[in-house]
Amino acid sequence: MGTPYEQDVVAWAREQAALLRAGKLTAIDIEHIAEEIEDVGKSEQRELASRMSVLLAHLLKWQVQPERRGASWRTTLRIQRTAIERRLNKTPSMKPMLSDEDWISDMWGDARQQAANETGISVAVLPETCPWPMAQVLDPEFYPD
Prior knowledge:
- The radius of gyration is 20 Å and the shape is elongated.
- It has one domain (9-138): Malate Synthase G, Chain: A, Domain 4 (Up-down Bundle).
- Helix 2 packs antiparallel against helix 3 (71-90) and helix 2 packs across helix 4 (101-119).
- The chain has helices at 9-21, 30-64, 71-90, 101-119, 134-138.
- The model has no long low-confidence stretch (mean pLDDT 95).
- By secondary structure, the chain is an all-alpha fold.
């Protein structure tokens, strides 16, 4: 076998791809290939979660600090919504996450903490649950009052 997975994952990946293309299926590292494939999905989910947390935090800041609203917050909201839409279009299997109450609760918790850290407002006074449906959160025209 070539380069061990644990030694150099990039060299290992190239070698595994070459083996697959050559049809040398008995020589491939099945277990590590399966792990890498699963990690691709996890990476996509982490990116969606990160972008959603940022979006929710900025919507929350928009709501609780109207005097600080500005072009940079609007830009962040637009960028996050566009990136989320692009991610969901490329990986539609993640769309059900937007209706998963546990997932939304996790994103909201992260967003709440981020908003509290960035505004100086106590997390205790921020809404415990997301006050907006996900369709509204993703709507490019939506800005909470």
